[in-house]
Amino acid sequence: MMTELSQIISQIEPLDPTWLETAQARLDSLTKPRGSLGRLEELAARYVAIRREEMPPLDKKRVVVFAADHGVVAEGVSAYPQEVTFQMVYNFLQGGAGINVLGRHTGAQVEVVDIGVNHDFGSVPGLISRKVAYGSRNMAQEPALTREEALRALLVGVEMAEEALASGVDALAAGDMGIGNTTPAAALASVFTGRPVGAVTGRGTGIEDQVWQHKLAVINRALALHRPTAEDPVGALAGVGGLEIAGIAGLILGAAAARRPLLLDGFIATAGALVAKALAPASVDYLIAAHRSVEPGHQIMLDSLELKPLLNLQMRLGEGTGAALGLSLLEAGVRIYRDMATFGEAGVAEQGE
Amino acid sequence: MMTELSQIISQIEPLDPTWLETAQARLDSLTKPRGSLGRLEELAARYVAIRREEMPPLDKKRVVVFAADHGVVAEGVSAYPQEVTFQMVYNFLQGGAGINVLGRHTGAQVEVVDIGVNHDFGSVPGLISRKVAYGSRNMAQEPALTREEALRALLVGVEMAEEALASGVDALAAGDMGIGNTTPAAALASVFTGRPVGAVTGRGTGIEDQVWQHKLAVINRALALHRPTAEDPVGALAGVGGLEIAGIAGLILGAAAARRPLLLDGFIATAGALVAKALAPASVDYLIAAHRSVEPGHQIMLDSLELKPLLNLQMRLGEGTGAALGLSLLEAGVRIYRDMATFGEAGVAEQGE
After folding, report:
1. How far is residue B317 CA from its own chain's centroid?
2. Cβ of B40 under 8 Å from any chain A Cβ?
3. What phi-psi label fits residue A132: left (phi over 0), alpha (psi between -120 and 50 degrees) or beta?
4. What is the pLDDT of residues B302-331, one digit of tens each?
5. CA distance linking residue A134 with residue A119, whole number of Å
6. Architecture of the domain spanning B2-56+338-346
7. Which of the four CATH numbers 3.40.50.10210, 2.30.130.40, 3.30.160.60, 3.40.50.150 does domain B61-329 have?
8. Can you tell me the ipTM of this complex?
9. Res A351 pLDDT > 80
10. What are the domain boundaries of chain B?
11. Whole-prediction pTM value?
């Protein structure tokens, strides 16, 4: 499996700045003052560079939501009971969750992957079953995953990207569902940014101060126990990670190898991006940070990836909801690039003429 | 005409907070942690309060772009020649401008109103002809408009809102086109916020430092000449305003009277909002600030209206481009509110259960 992963990683190339210049030249010929569409122009240029085509289409968009459970909830770190994970998976499949609504609004497909939910779904229409385990183990007591589980989950993510490419998907977004998953995400944030746990750990979906102190203690205990390092990303995932986070990291690697942009959601998805970057630094070139989460550690993670989020709407839901809104902005930028008239076409005078 | 305007103003009521509570109760019953969709929830609640309906639809969206010229360009305050205004109107009608592309992307109609362009269009399909004058006069020499012209332009805006309501439009956005219009917008910003001209005046679509100093001098001269005050909004519009700014102010008043939200674009549209607020303070309740412009004075204007912009994408194009993106976010919020499953419907456990 390590060979398979290495092969994908070897296909990831940094962006060629020549494509950014090609794109900017066209953007500057459109009927608007130069640069006046700001980040929409930046998105369009990046898309051209990612695709390495002069007029890349952007028709099919997909949000892949990875769902998994976390043994660490036994420590009482979440405000919600674990069964909410599988209940929300059913909600996704019925189209009633936030990501379903925003997927429909922005014209993006929503795919739901059971990569590690602690529930037997049997055969449910629409659910992609890639269960690596019935959730992770309690990281405060033992490694969350074996190295093999972590690798398998990474490869599930890669597979989802390859399948998307084969289906003609132009742009991807990553989402998550997993009660308790801010705990592994914060642990990984501390490992990969080098910042103390207290700086990167938020209150998840709404826990009290005492529970928060306890959450810090749990994460610190897990870090002391497994000693994860940024130099061994798979080991870090195994020690203090989670299956959906591994899946997202794999999706990022697969998207970068396939030359497709990946819209990052919030705190959980960005933890996956830290893992992906540690495995393949150039994968960051294919990432677009959609939304800055309310979680205080998110900005620290984004800074370490040198990514500037598009939106700041005080959201903290996950599921890929922020990423779906980001997909719509990416599409806006690409449409501007493709569809606006040039000064010549429209017969409009240019600046200084 | 003053009577007509007073009648519209008398129909504008502040929002009833009971509706905000009704909306929040439903938002809190949806399958997500409370408040976790942040500003999307805020938008949904505001929409319910504006419409005063428990389940208001949001199907039809419209951006109204007012185009006009400005005599003050004779002072050399703009980087573009005046004919760009009418050339861009043709570009709008052919569907090639930024606002056309973003209107199509977000599913909003784009209406173009000639409220004062210095050009004879004759009869052009798609153009709404409500020309009050062939542009404003040079405010550095004489009042930009007569009081009667300012009033007529305000009523054109009101008429556009009434027409939108009659056509079943659920949400409106205001856009502008007018070479030189950052000059009257900055002058009005200074009048209505009480801040010095230097603090609210930016570099428009890209002028040099020397031209900027000259622009400040021109605005200061006009203010000294006409002595506009916030207590006489129509007089301020006449002295240092412009026809498209008056049209936008009228559209805001009409939208508020008709109980429809109005998405504010950038610097120019927000100058119109300052005028509308001075005429009818409650009209601000119906405004949603879509985007924070790169123009430095914009934040000062938004602060004075107590509005917090949804987006900050470094845009400075105008035309309603920021407002169109804001319409899409409003729609996202309303869809969340209308379409997400409740905890009961989805069989998902609530927090603390």
Report:
1. 13
2. yes
3. alpha
4. 999 999 999 999 999 999 999 999 999 999
5. 7
6. Orthogonal Bundle (1.10)
7. 3.40.50.10210
8. 0.96
9. no
10. 2-56+338-346, 61-329
11. 0.97
